[in-house]
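Journal club prep, notes for RB
We'll compare a predicted complex against what the paper describes. Inputs for the zinc ion case:
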Amino acid sequence: MKKYEDLLEDAYAQVPAKLSSGERFEIPKLESFSEGNKTIVRNFGPAVDALRRKRDEVMKFLSKELAVPASIDADRLILQRKFFGDLINKKFEDYANSYVVCKQCKKPDTHIQELGHGMRNVVCEACGAVNPVK
Ligand SMILES: [Zn+2]
């Protein structure tokens, strides 16, 4: 039988080191290039994993915000249109600020709590804040 402190330690051990270092969190930058009329985000998978969110969910968000069909191919995100500049990163940051970074303590150690009927909370594991999101 494990002691409570050991269990806590186990829980901390599972949090990726860079998220629990206490330093200011940097939202990962998406690297994209165009191919014909498409835009390929080559590091989509790892960037979303760093936010501890579902790739599907982030794809849907970007697809809606950029008003373009999107699909996932292994670690890459394919957008069915050419995009220039930092628009994709801007939207990705919007996502992170709305659904990942805690509004109170600005840490990314959060998870989404599904409440049903399209209601969701962002729950912070660092400070315990609960913020409703759409
Ligand atoms: Zn917090």
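Talking point for the session: The two ends are 41 Å apart (CA to CA).
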